[in-house]
Amino acid sequence: MNRTGILLLQTGTPGAADTASVRRYLAEFLSDPMVIDLPRLAWLPLLHAIILPLRARRSARLYQKIWLDNGMSPLLHHSRVLAQETAKLLGSGTITDLAMRYGRPGMEEILNKMHQQGADRFLILPLFPQYSRTTTGSCVAKLFQLVTQIVHMPPVRIARPFFDHPLYIQALAAQIHHHHPPQPGRHYLFSFHGLPQHYVARGDPYEEHCRATANLLARAIPLQSQQWTLSFQSRFGPQAWLEPNTQTLLKTLPGQGMTDLAVICPGFVADCLETLEEIAIAGQKTFMDHGGKSFAYVPCLNQSPTWLAALKAIILDELGGWS
Fold this sequence. Notes:
Layout: E1 3-13, H1 19-30, H2 40-66, H3 74-90, E2 94-103, H4 107-116, E3 119-126, H5 133-147, E4 156-158, H6 166-179, E5 186-193, H7 197-201, H8 206-220, E6 228-233, H9 246-252, E7 260-264, H10 273-276, H11 282-289, E8 294-297, H12 305-318
Parallel strand pairs: 1-2, 1-3, 3-4, 5-6, 5-7, 7-8
């Protein structure tokens, strides 16, 4: 059968919440020159001799706080369910699956499986709403490296970033209204994953995409300009990162009278370590320890009905002319 393969891509996850598994995952992730663009001769010895031994142990303890009883990380669980539900919505004319850029299920494994199942053309949809070379760019680079190894190379399309897609914005707004709707005195923090500033200086559109998403989401809720703030989380290393920093704001917002806070992470479509531990657990403690009175975390889209409908529409748009 000739069928269209829909491949959903995520960053990745350790296979288990132990130090060895986390170390393997971090070694692959942090060795990617599109993620860490330091000279290899300087970076790799530092990574393996100092950073991995320290960070893997610490990260494993954090993963243990959020690991699910089914043996999966939240990112893998929610992403798999999303792929399964999307497959049901699209029907038998397509093959829909999930792969990780780092860790398992790996891109090579899933591409080969889909090809054997009859996929003779592929739509690749990175689940990163805002484009960055460190996420979408790295996935696409790896993808074409793998596709060229297929003897009869199939046609491949790469879905556009959906940072401003109306249905994606509507899904985010619906998530806020369902979990923590606006009320007098409540302030919203739109926290995106951070990025070193030099990437943006060299032309990466990530910051521009994040600000566009935040502005569109504020209008959709709707919120006035004084009711929300954009920030960037997950800073790593000594270099300058995008500002303002989420952790800094969690400490300073209560002193500015913003003691009722709701946080949403629009750059993540599935809950993961950065949302559940960094924001919902550690972020809440930071905010409350510095004078906050009420903290609410808005879950990621995961497999919400509005997000499933949006994802189906995005896929059908991208398949125009194919089916």
